[in-house]
Write a structure and sequence with these properties.
Layout: E1 3-13, H1 19-30, E2 33-38, E3 44-51, H2 52-64, E4 70-79, E5 88-90
Parallel strand pairs: 2-5
Antiparallel strand pairs: 1-3, 1-4, 2-3
Helix pairs in contact: 1-2
Length: about 90
């Protein structure tokens, strides 16, 4: 199974709705590594590493997000998987 990395910027109503915590739960359930954080402009940024099929599932989940979220757009950037992370974390600050 080919591994990869995807960097997402999630736009919309994605702060104050448990988006980061739910993203972490989803990533752990899918066996992905990386991180998620809020951005000062109201967006959420996430980096996922793992099998390509699981990355697609994570992106599909991010398009909906948790109840209360209203995702309007996602910017995706795909890259090779450097296997930089050992877990999936919530980052604080920017």
């Amino acid at each position: 199974m080919k591994k990869g990395r995807v960097h997402l910027i999630i736009h919309g109503l994605v702060q104050g709705v448990f988006y980061r915590a739910s993203t972490r739960e989803t990533a752990l359930r899918l066996g992905l590594k990386g991180w998620v954080r809020n951005l000062p402009d109201g967006k959420v940024e996430a980096v996922f590493e793992g099998p390509a099929d699981q990355l697609q599932k994570a992106i599909e989940w991010c398009r909906e997000g948790p109840p209360g979220a209203r995702v309007t757009k996602i910017d995706e950037k795909w890259d090779d998987c450097p296997s930089e992370f050992s877990s999936f974390d919530i980052r604080y600050g920017w």
